[in-house]
Design goal:
single chain; about 475 residues; alpha/beta; elongated
Amino acid sequence: MRTVQIADITLRQAGGDRALSFKERVEIARTLDRLQVDAVELPPILDARAGALSNKTIASVVSSARLSAAAGLTEESVELTWESVRGARKPGLHILLPASPVQMEYMCHKKGPAMLELARALVGRARYFTEQVEFSALDATRAEPEFLHQLLSAALEAGASAVTVCDSAGIMTPGECAGFIRSLYEAVPGLEKVLLGVELSDGLHMASACAAAALDAGAGLVKTAIAPMDAPTTEHFAAYLSARGESRGLRWNLRTTELSRAAAQLRWLLQSQRSSGSPFDSGVDDGAPAVCLTAGDDIGEMVKVVRHLGYDLTEEDNARVYEAFQRIASKKHFVSTRELDAIVASTAMQVPSVYRIVTYVITCGSAASAMASLTLEKDGERQQGVCAGDGPIDAAFLAIEQIIGHHYELADFQIQTVTEGREAMGSALVKLRSGGKLYSGSGISTDVIGASIRAYISALNKIVYEET
């Protein structure tokens, strides 16, 4: 019996038409880890701060799977990527380079000899940081065979511990795929000593069959996706393993009994659509575990919790938050995570109001879409936004985004009452993410919609103040 490894490429490939939010990426990684896939693949870092923060957060929640992060096309990006995942239990680096003439010219503007040198340099740099280095030859099935053999040999010589060949065009039949894998074993010395994987596009709807043929020919790693993409779905490939795996002498780690339910949940997460560009398209629950602090906790403990919530505060702001925390903690048994959120929102990083609310009008009902008309003032100039939404608060936030001309990820949104009776006051907390950093704002009003708008503007002013 030999073990077949399954690497999930959902996070690496997702984006395109609908980029994933920070929380969605973390939730997908957590679910894949729970299903015991062998590797979770991450995309290259495009925004140094936000991408690194995303990788670090995912590294903290993935406990059993190998975290394979695409390392970009420069030695500097290799180091940046390693720093972002080195905290994972099983960190790895992934070098992806084109192998076909068309893709080499399109992606890297390089010819064959230069590409061989780039492969040696990037794999060698990655090998300096970790033994877990995978090299993927993109569009390998349309590469010139002699060059492909040279490229794989160069990666192996530089220290790659795994090699993957990609049928990016999805043009192979199962028989051709098996023959392709056997030819590589014959032509590339040392390939039998490392893990050989396949990444197959589903252009002919035969990707799962090709993956099965590749395993029969000696491959040991298959790339799948938990959601429908241009790759074998994890469910379909797991069905093959369950039905025929043992008879083929294969064993695997994937938890197939939990797969259908988890896959359905993630498909909903990836495919659910709300109003175009809605601030709520990533949900409003930050997923932070409940933490309770008491008056006996020192500032160091409080700062740890604040950082775990996602905030990156200055020493001065931490001192302000701790002072406010102590005032509240002295009057009750403990301070919860949500209460600490509210303290940060109302205490940390108090800044001048760049944007000020002038007026807002909200209309909604069972027979019509919610509409919001807002007027904000900035530098003495009034600007108006009018938007429809999936509810009054969604419409109001969209109107604000229309005015400012920017969409920020809504990391969390909370509403609660602070007084009782018909004239009860409502308190709102809004957490926005910009450049990988979290900004929170609070608002209070007898009108929960007004409180929500004030909270959003409070967080927005902090972002604008810091970025100008």
